[in-house]
């Protein structure tokens, strides 16, 4: 096996006329092979080598449905597609928000300024053209996040409210399955670790509820 130069947890090798990839993390692993029989053989070898040290996880799966690092992967061989979902992490993010007090409420004061912070998209007339109004991961007018701290936009200590916890979980979801929110997350990340103002908190909370 050769270790990837990009990700130290990933190993790969030529296997027969195809190839195999082995992803090893602290509490999870994933085997990918060109042929199912190669994957099964590698899995058996991996299990035999470490069976005396590690118990086989009850969540260990085979076939076309897998869960890896909280990501549910479903393979549809007939359609030639793979579906990725993260239901556990969405529930975890919601629970986290609901445990962090008034600043993290879904119906916070930052929501009321938007046409639709939640609910279904709808069409509105504008210059005789039908345009869709949809939810967005960041307010269209988000200049306050760039403003210096002051009386109207005070610094909030991390022991009072830590937006980094929200952004960390949200960013993992975005990296895995929600690229539509990547730009907003990048903007919020610039400030959560340097100057956590009320505007930064509102942006982080809005992004999380958008997901």
Descriptive account of the structure:
The protein is α+β, with helices and mostly antiparallel strands. The chain folds into two domains: 2-85, no CATH class; 87-210, no CATH class. It contains five helices and nine strands, in the order ββββαβββαββααα. A four-stranded antiparallel β-sheet has the order 1-2-3-4, with helices on one face. The protein has a three-stranded antiparallel β-sheet with strand order 5-6-7, with helices on one face. Strand 6 (71-76) and strand 7 (81-85) form a beta hairpin. It is elongated. This is Reverse transcriptase Ty1/copia-type domain-containing protein.
Please outline what is shown here.
The chain is 31% helix and 21% strand.
Please render the helix and strand layout as text.
Elements: E1 2-3, E2 10-15, E3 18-24, E4 29-33, H1 36-50, E5 65-68, E6 71-76, E7 81-85, H2 87-98, E8 122-126, E9 129-133, H3 163-177, H4 182-192, H5 198-210
Antiparallel strand pairs: 1-2, 2-3, 3-4, 5-6, 6-7, 8-9
Helix pairs in contact: 2-3, 3-4, 3-5, 4-5
DSSP summary, beta strand count: 9
Mean pLDDT: 81
What share of residues are in beta strands? 15-25%
Q: Calculate Rg over CA atoms.
A: 22 Å
Strand order of the largest sheet: 1-2-3-4
Q: Briefly note the structural class of the backbone.
A: alpha+beta
- What is the count of distinct domains? 2
Q: Output the number of helix runs.
A: 5
Shape: elongated
Q: Sheet bearing the most strands, described?
A: 4 strands, antiparallel
Percent in helix? 25-40%
Q: What's the assembly state of these chains?
A: single chain
Distance between the termini: 38 Å
Are there runs of 5+ residues with pLDDT below 50, and where? 108-119
Order of helices and strands: EEEEHEEEHEEHHH
